[in-house]
């Protein structure tokens, strides 16, 4: 299948490109490289440097490559920033997605796989969270993802564009074969921050609260390997092509790791000390977030295969080693 991966030079996007190429798809990447990296591009995939806000460029991309399907991962994703700069998130996430939907409609694209997020749910009302969980986003980033899902539903009804919306929980890890190694710049998520502390790029990790109702008092999250996520994108396309039915699915493992567990496991795997300080809770955070992946299993026949904490952290550490020489304090 000829598949456009919009945002395909990004952390998750490049893993999706890798998976689609592995399974013989013809892949075309469109990315503005604002956070995506040239080092994440694969020579086997065509690439066009462009922004989803540049409508003429976006249409040039569709005219040149004539994709049959789209994976749309291009978005801003910092929940905290979205509360300070909602205009930026409205423009990039919502307007950008509508530009893609309009181009897809104009060029007769019939299948779109959308990178959504567990942030559409807001704080858990019950755990683990299934697709029927109330969608009450508590940050503007989560709202943009929910709004785009609603546009997808309208374009399905009015323009017959079938969609699969994949609600990621906490994406982490790197390709086990080392084919992707671009690091997120100025990360806001826990695991890259812990890795920066381990490699010596950062003095310490701020642990945002240790008074949650969790076993060690720190936040527990459902970390899902990007390669497991990428496989779900490929399987979602297969399902859309085969059945033509649109769907929404949670992607997670239903097993959680706490902040301190991530720090301790990173120390064990890297052999490096990770300094940390307990600070106040971060606004908007919640104690525990876990996915119920039963529907993904029943409907897509998908389940996580490499999302154990050891694989998540060891593959990430290898990516950091490729980009940095670890700081080793000189012996006195
Ligand atoms: C994980 C845990 C923090 C940083 C966010 C988005 C969500 C999704 C995944 C895209 C929490 C703690 C973190 C730090 C810390 N993104 N933490 N110190 O908040 O679960 O979800 O990323 O879809 O939409 O909201 O991920 O990695 O920021 O935090 O203590 O320096 O680590 O409190 O318990 P989060 P996170």
Briefly, what is this?
This protein is an alpha/beta fold and 332 residues long. Helices cover 40% and strands 17% of the residues. It contains ten helices and 13 strands.
What would you note in describing this structure?
This protein has a domain at 2-172 and 223-251: 3-Layer(aba) Sandwich (Rossmann fold), CATH 3.40.50. The chain is 40% helix and 17% strand. It contains 10 helices and 13 strands. The strands form 4 sheets. Strands 3-2-1-4-5-6-11 form a 7-stranded parallel β-sheet, sandwiched between helices. Helix 1 (11-22) packs across helix 7 (226-243). The N and C termini lie far apart (60 Å). The mean pLDDT is 96. The site of UDP-4-deoxy-4-formamido-beta-L-arabinopyranose (WQD) has 20 residues, from helix 6 and strand 8.
